[in-house]
Amino acid sequence: MTTETALPDGANPFLGPGGVDREIIQRCIHCGFCITSCPTYSLLGNEMDSPRGRIYLMRLVVDGEMEATGTVIKHLDRCLDCRACETACPSGVSYGRLIGAAREGLEKVRRRPLGERLLRRFLFRWLLPSRPLLTLAGVITRLYQRTLLGPIVRAVGLVPRKLVRLEPMMPEAPAFTRMLPLPAEVPALGEERRRVAFLGGCLQSVLFGEVNRAAVRTLAANGVRVVFPRGQTCCGALQAHAGDRETARDLARRNIGVIDPDVFDAIVLAVSGCGAMLHEYAELLEDDPAWAGRARRFSEKAMDVTVFLSRLGVRRAAHPWPQRVAYHHPCHLAHALKVREEPLDVLRAVENAEIVPLRESDWCCGSAGSYNLTQTELSMKLLDRKMDHVRDAAAPVLCTGNPGCQIQIGFGAREREMDLRVVHPLVLLDEAYRASGLYEGARLP
Question: N or C: which end of the chain has fewer CB within 10 A?
Answer without folding.
Answer: N
